[in-house]
Design brief:
It comes from Rhizocola hellebori. One of its GO terms (molecular function) is metal ion binding. Keywords: 4Fe-4S, Iron, Iron-sulfur, Membrane, Metal-binding, Transmembrane, Transmembrane helix. This is 4Fe-4S ferredoxin-type domain-containing protein. It is a single chain. By secondary structure, this protein is α/β, with parallel strands linked by helices. The protein folds into three domains: about 150 residues, 3-Layer(aba) Sandwich (Rossmann fold); about 100 residues, no CATH class; about 80 residues, Alpha-Beta Plaits, CATH 3.30.70. Strands 1-3-2-4-5 form a five-stranded mixed sheet, with helices on both faces. A hairpin with a 5-residue loop joins strand 6 and strand 7. Helix 7 packs antiparallel against helix 9 and helix 8 runs antiparallel to helix 11. The radius of gyration is 23 Å and the shape is globular.
Length: about 350
């Protein structure tokens, strides 16, 4: 088999595995990567050591003369690592020191992904290392335009979660209900029932990924409970129509209802637009930087007139400047409780 074809197949299998098992770490070796023919003025980018992320970033940076620092984030993607305390000041400092990048460039400026803002304290990075941090766009596909038009300025950018990405996440999110419900179902009702439950979990996860932004209730249990009731009632009715015995009706009703709850409460953890608002996840993952329901409060006397760093760094555009040129949280419902504004305020006026 030609090397190119073998590499293509290997890459495809790796992408498929990372899609299905996305909640597991897929680390690559941290360190320095070089693209093109960089000189002492070439930009230095930083990303997480999640294999899928590194491959996406490398594909874009291959067109530039630059350096890429891969930080030791435990093989977790940028957003989850940042919100979970695995992509912060310590990891950026480690990437700088391990790579020896100081010897390769004359400037001291790092370009970090925007979704690392909740975890990386840029003031502390500069204090410890002498390097200044600037944040690039949220989407890697927007990086070329930002480099050509705005680099190194911080520009406002709002995170999105389009249907294609939701479907990808839905495939990964289906793993947990498939395992949690499929294995017991197989032991209780036989392997065919186990496979059916596992398959239905993936189908429901993808369908839920498509429709959940349009559902009237808030993500998590408010969506999960009515979904469970609806699915449980429908599966019980179908089981009765199929002349299944009473035990079978109970089994399918309870199992499918539980599947609805599991999918609904797990999926927000995959979403960059809802994850930090899901209080159950904050309970399960106490390492997250902000407590459940956190809303930023601005100390106006400390706030710098006209400073809009918090406005631009907010991934949901929930911050703005008032008429007196002071920052304010004008959209509490849109706030992700992600902590980015707190981390990036230059005078610690937000808490």
């Amino acid at each position: 088999m030609p090397a190119a074809s073998s590499s293509l197949i290997t890459g495809g299998l790796r992408s498929a595995a990372q899609l299905i098992f996305r909640s597991f770490p897929f680390p690559v070796e941290p360190g320095l990567r070089t693209f093109g023919n960089p000189d002492r003025n070439s930009p230095v980018f930083v990303t997480a050591n999640f294999d899928h992320t590194v491959r996406l970033v490398s594909r874009v940076l291959a067109n530039y003369d630059c350096y890429l620092l891969i930080a030791p984030t435990g093989g977790v993607n940028v957003w989850c690592a940042s919100a979970g305390g695995h992509f912060g000041t310590d990891e950026v400092e480690a990437a700088i020191k391990l790579s020896g990048i100081d010897k390769l460039v004359d400037h001291h400026r790092l370009v970090l992904p925007r979704l690392a803002a909740p975890g990386v304290n840029v003031k502390e990075v500069r204090h410890r290392t002498g390097w200044r941090v600037v944040f690039g766009p949220i989407e890697i596909d927007d990086l070329p335009q930002w480099l050509e038009q705005s680099f190194p300025r911080l520009v406002a950018d709002v995170v999105s979660f389009p249907w294609r990405r939701r479907v990808e996440m839905g495939v990964g999110a289906g793993l947990w209900p498939a395992v949690i419900l499929g294995v017991p179902a197989g032991l209780i009702m036989g392997w065919r029932a186990g496979l059916a439950i596992a398959g239905l979990s993936y189908v429901l996860s993808v369908l839920f990924a498509l429709v959940y932004p349009r559902m009237p209730a808030q993500p998590g249990l408010p969506q999960g409970i009515p979904l469970a009731v609806m699915l449980g009632a429908a599966s019980g009715a179908l089981a009765r129509l199929a002349d299944v015995n009473l035990w079978g009706v109970i089994f399918w009703t309870v199992t499918i209802a539980a599947m609805g709850v599991l999918v609904a409460i797990d999926f927000p953890s995959w979403s960059p637009t809802d994850v930090c608002k899901q209080q159950l996840l904050c309970f399960l993952y106490p390492a997250t930087l902000a407590p459940a329901g956190f809303l930023p409060v601005v100390d106006e006397p400390k706030c710098i007139d006209g400073c809009d760093i918090c406005v631009k760094v907010c991934p949901k555009g929930a911050m703005s400047l008032k008429d007196n040129h002071k920052a304010t949280l004008f959209d509490p419902q849109g706030c992700l409780s992600c902590y980015a504004c707190v981390q990036q305020c230059p005078v610690d006026a937000i808490s």
